[in-house]
């Protein structure tokens, strides 16, 4: 015969199994790529890892690449919210972080080959998307978002270095890059 204490413990144990079966928490990872439209159309891609909690919230960190006329890489914190806890649902996304310039050899301005000072800038992205389940722990995601990124680069050069000491003849050129883009991306989320 089961006594009261064992019955209460059994009920608590069974209810905890029920709660853990209902809670959709744990690690997630996503990778997506697509097109960004701003001054020109270019490839964008990003990947993030994080933790999924309270059915619908996802928080994590990620990094990406924006292959615009000046290539750069955002490093960011991400927050996503599923509008429902159904397998097929719309979601909101917000990313915030820093933008790091990542020039290739053909992207340095004019006659410069390297920057004297690189200042990382800000990165913000916000948008809406739709995800649909295609396997037990895998979703296909499609999103549209607005992204802003910026950074600064400084060059020093001395056109009269042959005639004057370099310290007195430096010319400083500052370049400020700003990107405001609409991004359309598709990818996968695993959890």
Key phrases:
single chain; 191 residues; mainly beta; Porin; eight-stranded antiparallel barrel; elongated
Annotate the secondary structure layout:
Layout: H1 4-22, E1 26-37, E2 41-53, E3 57-66, E4 72-82, E5 89-101, E6 117-119, E7 121-135, E8 138-157, E9 171-190
Report on the structure:
- This protein has 191 residues and is mostly beta strands.
- 10% of the residues lie in helices and 61% in strands.
- It has an 8-stranded antiparallel beta barrel.
Query: Total domains, how many?
Result: 1
Instruction: Assign a percent range to the helix content.
Output: under 10%
Q: Name the average pLDDT.
A: 84
CATH C-level class = Mainly Beta
In short:
It comes from Chitinophaga silvatica. By secondary structure, the protein is mostly beta strands.
